[in-house]
């Protein structure tokens, strides 16, 4: 097997090498994903039920708060909210978690060779599984509220793919920073909560004053969430503008994140 | 095959800690980041052939583990080049990446995958792994319930499930009980017989001599000596004992202070020296050697029937022995002026370690101390290649074994 031949002087460019290594360690990747889910559900008695219950309860709270009290005028507000919230949760939890995983996983990194990207990729995999599971309560609510299921939903896997690419890219980029600067994790936490309110998740875009609209629309998470809302909430194909922006964002984020990470990857063991 | 050409590893440590991103940006713009450079390895050239057992020795901080990290690809060399052909199994971090919440079975797959084995390979070896680790009954219990011995046994069994082309061994193998240690040592020997290249780091120089054909001696990141293992070990020992000798000599010349000397000085002791059986002045001995202690006295008045004594303490304070002339019924009628006392130990029974002599001169009834030097004169005992190789306990009693069959 060619992986057993190693020459530190004639390595492939890190951008490609890391990808090949990841492929070589695909069994480990699979185990990291399944194990993190296993350990998580071993710990709690309600087990996998929590993944289903959690978004439901969250949505219930927010629905009451914003629809009944704040009087947002949105049809099927619960679905509007849940679609955005699930995408956001996936993004926020995954990026945060992959930074921490790399830092806490440093013990392993300093002692034994494994491809470094495997941590971020496995966290994304983990997030994807959680996201897919949470589609079950979403379906239940849609059935309950008689939301129509349209053929546009067939494009959902593509949207999920774009979202995963985007998230992986940001995760890798932030992880690279976090290796070199301890306080990046904290700064990012603050940024995330600001970004949450700059993204139309709990409120409708129509509520935003005209002059703030560019700010909202520049936010990449707005595009990502709009993509999902088109498919699930409005039940129609997303506009060309949204589609192209989402594709562009995902590819750019992934390429830049992967590039930044792999460019620095040989320094990690020195720094962590 | 492992080949390092001109491998250097540089750590850059920021001179002051720059903890925050903001600080960093500010300083980076001002160009104010100073690094302290530290070369953990410097221009290391090394070629290890297939099937060779190769030793790495050197003091702590010499770069031994950095070298292993380079070979096992954890650290990429700052400059220079590493070539490795063959699958590496590191035995340095047994059980690295075990997840305590998961069962033994799940951890075998996880740890195996971390070591780069595929699911299929682990499937094939699974039974043999738990058999070797002796953990069949516990294999579905979470690893957090394992003892540290079980943990290490499982780690070893996973890391050696297949014969690797290259095995990296750090400090053989305090793994598990005596039986498992024998088993794991046998397995390594078997790999060796089948052509596995072994890279061995050990503090046990005897081990390195026994097992390795060639070795390097690393110090401060550089190769000091490179060649046949026994020669490299001997060179290293020479230097180490040289340094040790100087240090002990220096230490024994340290001034006597009120805290380690007392007595009314009617008789003073001085010029305390240690000799080996050949009459050479010596501070380093082997168990079983002859040791002669010599002390000079100056009696400032006439003392009848004085008593001279010594004591040996181990560095940790354990009192090994305390003979004196009275206990030995060795009569010294009366002294005045200068004289010399010698005490000969024909067979030094203490095992490896650092020891200190005390010397004393007192009156016949043990009521008046003339001079006492408390634990002032150090000597070291080492056992490399000596007659006595006992590692356990404090002393050897030089007993004899015999055996007969009873049917």
Overview of the molecule:
- The complex is a heterodimer of chains A (272) and B (407).
- By secondary structure, chain A is mainly α.
- Chain A has twelve helices and one strand.
- In chain A, helix 7 packs antiparallel against helix 10 (220-234), helix 7 (156-180) runs parallel beside helix 11 (240-264) and helix 10 (220-234) packs across helix 11 (240-264).
- With 407 residues, chain B is of the alpha/beta class.
- In chain B, a hairpin with a 4-residue loop joins strand 14 (307-314) and strand 15.
- In chain B, the strands form four sheets. Chain B has a six-stranded mixed β-sheet with strand order 5-6-7-3-8-9, sandwiched between helices. In chain B, strands 10, 12, 14, 15, 17 and 18 form a six-stranded mixed β-sheet that branches.
- The interface between A and B is large, with 35 and 40 residues.
Rg of chain A, Å, rounded: 20 Å
What Rg of chain B do the Cα atoms give? 29 Å
Percentage of residues in strands of chain A: under 5%
Number of strands of chain B: 18
Q: Which structural class matches the secondary elements of chain B? A: alpha/beta
Helix % of chain A is: over 70%
Provide mean pLDDT of chain A, rounded: 86
Q: How can the largest sheet of chain A be summarized?
A: none
How far the N terminus sits from the C terminus of chain B, by CA atoms, comes to 54 Å
The sequence of SSEs of chain A as H and E is EHHHHHHHHHHHH
Structural category of chain A is mainly alpha
Give the overall silhouette of chain A.
Answer: globular
Gap from first CA to last CA of chain A: 30 Å
